[in-house]
């Protein structure tokens, strides 16, 4: 059977994140700047948010993730969800986990990718700013609709969100587990694990033991077990490798590496699995082992990026995803048992780990046809590609797979043999570089229209490509696809008459076909050969009379014809342009000088005085401008810390006094330090300070204002800067002698 | 109780890393702390450098509030009405 798919399934957004997820929908998440362990760099905000999650549209491979594990592996694939989207505590990203329709769409999408179990990170029965019972209820319904299971993970923030003091943590965790089991354990869609022939529900505990330890609390897990046994007797899955050793632990779940990769030589962080979690699994094969996979980590969009510094994990265009799966596959291939492989995470966009939106790769593919041979080129790492698929469609809705080749094979298709084609006609060809599971699939940007004739009597065997003829007069090319003219009688060899001299059946059929075409033609061409005003160009809806209504009889654009989105006629639009397309005068610059910073010619006008000199000293570069600090000293060091404190202060310039917030610098050692402030626009306020250890560091950058020096010394407090230089430094400012 | 957070991080042209520290969400407390490359690139050094500065910013904020209270004296301000 030929493989068929809808064209839309490989040409349109096919994941459950919003089809509008991008700068237009969430501008604060798409500023174009990302934070890699404190190093700020730019990202392309048209394709990813600041935490490097993929923007829409995204087309990914829906091939099952199970194919990334060894054949016959009986474990389950799960996905952790924060599920807090749609709550007021989080920014709007175009879908809501609190909306049943959206949640079901997410579950269906993840089920289609091969996930067996969704794992919401639960914080409270009722607190409205986090994943609570209401959210899990919707996930339960969604999983039932998608044919998959769910199980709950209790987050360590549960204690704080529900008012438990450390002394009451034991009561708190018992209450949480019993509440969840009483509510969900009887649901047939709640995930169970069979122990000694008895299926038992599972409860995961995310860093709960760590929280208990950090807060100096104690929990008697034997007492917990006794208390929860009457409530469906759940299996308790603790956090990370150490979770196996917790009293009454039934197993452990892996999370991800929390040590940074190295800028310039990124790693996937899979050593967390190979060096820590999986060896622990080997030592605990009698318990439940939940390993993990991830696409990367980037905390830029969290409330404060500071906590996530040092945890960045580069996606490496999909290599991190591939690598973490490979580690788990190799582990199972070595004869060990893994019960679960879980994705960290499904939807934590703020931490840059969300796979809901798919994972971008760096593949680019180009396709071309020469004669009867289709060839293509590829750039990027091909280990993110499952196969190169050539699709053909006649109606633009359903496509048939004409051929499929694996990476490493010759990059070409023989267009003379496509057994999947069983009917003659004109096909639009698409070349798809299908990604590995959940990775981006890429389409060649160019499609081709090729006509095929199937040999009569051998349907479905040999086809002969017909060259696409040049478009006859009147043929319109749309969307890069030429619709060829196919003559009615061109490929017919049927006899005109039968053996009785009557018109043959085939000839009559051709006449009917021609008559039908003529009937269609009379709707668009008048009896005197003119195109009717209401004739519609292919792909458009208005009559051609409307289309050309904006043109004069000589083909010129009429003055009152409007540009799309504008209200005035084009004649008005171009009034202020010269015949060579230049502005007639600088007065024709709209809103010149209203930007911030000023743009256009007004920028120069504002900066200069009537004698074409700089209007005042604020128009010069700070490094050339004289100034004097108004305070006697501004720099201080306590002789204990290597940090130098810079007091809030003001600077007297010729054009006025500018006030600055406090700051500090730290070279990491005691020494003479030259301080400057980066204030290219004399704006003052909170601005970063620079510190150098050479005199010339004060003047090696255009926007710097000298702030004086201080020589810090271990065990000796001192001051510097200001207009005196203090006890251990020199004065700040420029053009001033103490 | 004052709470500081790092609201912005910049890599300066000379390679130094500057972090903008803010106390209690009040932008008037913004304080840039600049760290040399060797300080910023090591997790422990970075933390050791930042922690006392965060404390300093919190103390400065507390001082500023007390100073403002002193200026206000016994004058009571009406509660702010949010739209």
3D architecture notes:
The complex is a heterodimer of chains A (738) and B (83). Chain A is an alpha/beta fold and 738 residues long. Helix content of chain A is 17%, strand content 22%. Chain A is built from 13 helices and 33 strands. In chain A, the strands form seven sheets. Chain A has an eight-stranded parallel barrel with strand order 4-5-7-9-10-11-12-13, surrounded by six helices. In chain A, strands 1, 16, 17, 19, 20, 21 and 22 form a seven-stranded antiparallel sheet that branches. In chain A, helix 5 packs parallel to helix 7 (221-228). Chain A is flat, with a radius of gyration of 35 Å. Chain B has 83 residues and is of the alpha+beta class. Chain B has helices at residues 37-40, 43-72; strands at 4-11, 17-23, 26-35. Chain B has a three-stranded antiparallel sheet with strand order 1-2-3. In chain B, strand 2 (17-23) and strand 3 form a beta hairpin. Classes of the chains: A alpha/beta (738), B alpha+beta (83). The interface between A and B is medium-sized, with 35 and 35 residues. Strand 28 (663-666) of chain A pairs parallel with strand 3 of chain B, so a sheet runs across the interface.
Set down the secondary structure blueprint.
The complex is a heterodimer of chains A (738) and B (83).
Chain A: E1 4-6, H1 8-11, E2 33-36, E3 39-42, E4 76-81, H2 100-113, E5 117-122, H3 133-146, E6 149-150, E7 152-155, H4 158-161, H5 169-184, E8 192-195, E9 198-206, H6 208-214, H7 221-228, E10 235-239, E11 251-253, H8 271-283, E12 288-293, H9 319-333, E13 340-343, E14 364-370, E15 373-379, E16 385-393, E17 398-405, E18 412-414, E19 425-435, E20 442-443, E21 448-454, E22 463-466, H10 505-522, H11 544-547, H12 570-573, H13 602-607, E23 627-629, E24 635-637, E25 643-646, E26 649-653, E27 656-660, E28 663-666, E29 672-678, E30 689-692, E31 704-711, E32 718-720, E33 729-730
Parallel strand pairs in A: 4-5, 4-13, 5-6, 5-7, 7-9, 9-10, 10-11, 11-12, 12-13
Antiparallel strand pairs in A: 1-17, 2-3, 8-9, 14-15, 15-18, 16-17, 16-19, 19-20, 19-21, 21-22, 23-26, 24-25, 24-32, 25-28, 26-27, 29-30, 29-31, 31-33
Chain B: E1 4-11, E2 17-23, E3 26-35, H1 37-40, H2 43-72
Antiparallel strand pairs in B: 1-2, 2-3
């Amino acid at each position: 059977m030929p493989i068929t798919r809808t064209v839309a399934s490989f040409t349109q957004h096919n994941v459950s994140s919003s089809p509008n997820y991008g700068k237009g929908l969430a501008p604060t998440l798409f500023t174009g700047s990302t934070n890699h362990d404190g190093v700020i760099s730019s990202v392309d905000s048209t394709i990813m948010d600041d935490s490097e999650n993929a923007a829409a549209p995204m087309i990914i491979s829906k091939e099952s993730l199970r194919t990334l594990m060894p054949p016959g592996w009986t474990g389950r694939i799960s996905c952790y969800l924060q599920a807090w989207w749609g709550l007021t505590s989080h920014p709007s990203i175009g879908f809501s986990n609190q909306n049943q329709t959206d949640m079901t769409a997410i579950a269906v999408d993840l089920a289609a990718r091969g996930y067996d179990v969704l794992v919401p990170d639960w914080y409270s029965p009722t607190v409205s700013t986090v994943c609570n019972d209401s959210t899990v209820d919707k996930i339960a319904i969604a999983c039932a609709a998608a044919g998959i299971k769910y199980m709950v993970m209790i987050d360590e923030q549960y204690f704080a969100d529900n008012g438990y003091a450390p002394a009451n943590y034991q009561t708190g965790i018992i209450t949480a587990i019993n509440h969840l089991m009483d509510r969900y354990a009887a649901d047939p869609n709640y995930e169970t694990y069979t122990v000694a022939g008895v299926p038992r529900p599972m409860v995961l505990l995310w860093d709960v033991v760590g929280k208990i330890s950090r807060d100096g609390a104690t929990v008697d897990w034997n007492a917990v077990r006794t208390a929860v046994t009457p409530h469906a007797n759940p299996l308790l899955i603790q956090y990370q490798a150490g979770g196996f050793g917790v009293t009454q632990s039934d197993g452990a779940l892996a999370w991800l590496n929390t040590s940074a990769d190295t800028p310039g030589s990124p790693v996937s962080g899979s050593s967390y699995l190979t060096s820590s979690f999986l060896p622990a699994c080997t030592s605990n094969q009698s318990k439940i082992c939940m390993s993990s996979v991830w696409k990367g980590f980037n905390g830029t969009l969290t409330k404060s990026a500071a906590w996530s510094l040092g945890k960045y994990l580069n996606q490496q265009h999909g290599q991190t995803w591939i690598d973490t799966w490979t580690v788990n596959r190799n582990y199972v291939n070595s004869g060990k048992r893994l019960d679960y492989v879980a994705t960290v995470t499904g939807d934590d966009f703020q931490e840059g780990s969300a796979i809901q939106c798919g994972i971008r790769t760096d593949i680019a593919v180009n396709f071309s046809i020469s004669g009867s041979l289709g060839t293509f080129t590829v750039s990027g790492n091909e280990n993110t590609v499952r196969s190169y698929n050539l699709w053909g469609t006649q109606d633009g809705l359903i496509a048939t797979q004409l051929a499929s080749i694996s990476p490493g094979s010759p990059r070409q298709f023989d267009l003379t043999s496509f057994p999947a084609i069983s009917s003659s006609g004109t096909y639009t060809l698409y070349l798809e570089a299908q990604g590995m599971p959940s990775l981006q699939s890429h389409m060649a940007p160019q499609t081709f229209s090729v006509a095929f004739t199937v040999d009569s009597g051998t349907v479905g065997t040999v086809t002969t490509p017909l060259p696409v003829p040049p478009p006859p007069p009147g043929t319109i090319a749309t969307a890069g696809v030429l619709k060829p003219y196919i003559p009615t009688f061109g490929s017919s060899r049927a006899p005109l008459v039968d053996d009785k001299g009557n018109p043959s059946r085939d000839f009559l059929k051709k006449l009917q076909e021609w008559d039908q075409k003529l009937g269609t033609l009379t709707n668009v061409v008048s009896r005197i050969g003119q195109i009717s005003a209401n004739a519609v160009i292919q792909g458009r809806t208005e009559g051609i009379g409307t289309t050309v209504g904006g043109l004069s009889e000589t083909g010129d654009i009429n003055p009152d014809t409007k540009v799309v989105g504008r209200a005035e006629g084009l004649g008005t639009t171009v009034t202020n342009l010269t015949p060579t397309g230049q502005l007639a005068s600088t007065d024709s610059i709209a809103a010149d000088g209203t930007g911030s910073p000023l743009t256009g010619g007004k920028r120069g006008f504002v900066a200069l005085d009537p004698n074409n000199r700089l209007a005042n000293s604020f128009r010069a570069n700070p490094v050339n401008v004289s100034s004097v600090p108004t305070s006697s000293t501004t720099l201080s060091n306590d002789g204990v810390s290597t940090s130098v404190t810079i007091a809030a202060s003001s600077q007297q310039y010729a054009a006025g006094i500018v006030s600055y917030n406090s700051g500090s610098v730290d070279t990491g050692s005691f020494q003479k330090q030259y301080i400057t402030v980066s204030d290219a626009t004399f704006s003052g306020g909170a601005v970063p300070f620079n510190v150098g250890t050479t005199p010339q560091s004060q003047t090696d950058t255009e926007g710097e204002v000298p702030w004086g020096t201080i020589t810090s010394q271990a065990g000796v407090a001192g001051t510097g800067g200001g207009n005196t230089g203090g006890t251990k430094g020199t004065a700040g400012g420029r053009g001033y002698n103490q | 109780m004052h709470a500081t957070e790092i609201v912005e991080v910049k890599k300066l042209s000379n390679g130094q890393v500057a972090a903008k520290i803010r106390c209690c969400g009040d932008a008037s407390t913004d304080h840039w702390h600049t760290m040399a490359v060797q300080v910023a690139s090591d997790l422990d050094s970075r933390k050791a450098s930042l922690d006392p500065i965060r404390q300093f910013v919190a103390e400065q904020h507390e001082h500023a509030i007390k100073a403002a209270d002193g200026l206000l004296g016994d004058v009571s301000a009406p509660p702010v009405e949010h739209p």
